[in-house]
Write a structure and sequence with these properties.
The complex is a heterodimer of chains A (114) and B (187). Chain A is elongated. Chain A is built from 5 helices and no strands. The N and C termini of chain A lie far apart (104 Å). By secondary structure, chain B is mainly alpha-helical. Helices cover 70% and strands 0% of the residues of chain B. Chain B is built from 8 helices and no strands. Chain B is globular. The chains are: A mainly alpha (114), B mainly alpha (187). The interface between A and B is medium-sized, with 27 and 40 residues.
Chain lengths: 114, 187
């Protein structure tokens, strides 16, 4: 280190900088302010999810309510009943879906393309 | 400051995990040097305070990207100096190193004679006057390296220069300072 460098280092201790303001307090207020909304929103979200879970659980525990909701959503269960005769509405639907009976000769004829 | 690497590493790791008290301890530890570096760059106490504050907030946001084990101070001082440079540019002012010799003279172990105190004070004032007469780039590199006693790496980070450029700029600045101090070159 040269004499000039030594003098400059000594001078550094004698320089009167403005006194350092309390930067830490201001920084921590800003850092804390930035974190609070995130924490608060997470808590609100968790509370909302808990309430929704309890409410849905309570409603689904009642069979009539559960059936109504599942039917409304279109995911209701299928009930199988054995009957001697199809109800009128189902018979009409089957007639629309199934054509008239055909012979095996008709079924084995070459395709005409039409 | 540099003799506490483990403590610093511990604080950094805790702060990275979200411990705000650890980060507060880091801000308290480095706010003095951060403010002075910002002051050297901006030449304004108000701008330096804002720059240091913003730098600490940005450093907190970027803390997860900081590699543990690396020295924290140069990383922080780079952010501080960037903030300070942005303020200097936006304010459209040239950086002015407005340092002054403290009113109180330093006291040694043995009480020096009044003449010796006067002479030492005059020498420091003359040296400071010569520093203030340099170009802003020279003032800044001398202020960071010698007056603030930053390492070469920290000076390079603060001035956003490669380490080699810091060395060459320091060498040239010292040469100009010697020329300023030579009798006959100034009244």
């Amino acid at each position: 280190m040269t004499e000039l460098e030594r003098q400059l280092r000594e001078l550094g201790a004698e320089v009167a900088y403005p006194s350092t303001p309390d930067i830490a307090a201001a920084v921590m207020a800003r850092v804390g302010a930035g974190r609070q909304p995130l924490l608060a929103s997470r808590r609100v979200l968790a509370l909302g999810l808990a309430i929704a879970t309890v409410a849905i659980g309570a409603v689904m525990a009642v069979p009539q309510a559960r059936t109504a909701i599942l039917d409304w959503l279109g995911v209701g269960g299928v009930e199988i009943r054995l009957v001697d005769e199809l109800p009128e509405i189902l018979r009409a639907q089957r007639c629309r879906l199934v054509s008239a009976p055909r012979s095996s000769a008709w079924a084995g004829r070459p395709a005409t393309g039409s | 400051m540099e003799g506490r690497p483990h403590e610093e590493e511990d604080l950094v790791e805790r702060a990275q995990r979200g411990d705000t008290r650890a980060y507060e301890a880091m801000v308290e530890r480095y706010q003095g040097i951060a403010f002075r570096v910002a002051y050297v760059v901006t030449g304004s106490a108000a701008d330096a305070e804002e720059a240091a504050q913003d730098a600490f907030v940005k450093a907190h946001r970027a803390l997860r990207r900081f590699r543990t084990g690396e020295p924290f101070r140069p990383w922080l001082l780079r952010i501080v100096a960037n903030e300070a440079r942005n303020r200097r540019r936006s304010a459209g002012r040239r950086a002015a190193l407005t340092v002054r010799v403290a009113a109180e003279e330093s006291s040694g172990d043995a009480a020096p004679s009044p003449e010796a105190v006067l002479l030492a004070g005059e020498q420091r004032r003359a040296l400071l006057q010569a520093v203030n007469a340099l170009r802003p780039e020279d003032q800044q590199v001398i202020a960071c390296r010698y007056l603030l006693d930053l390492s070469e790496d920290e000076t390079a980070a603060a001035l956003d220069l490669p380490r080699g450029t810091v060395k060459s700029r320091l060498s040239r600045a010292l040469g100009r300072l010697r020329a300023e101090l030579e009798p006959g070159d100034h009244d």
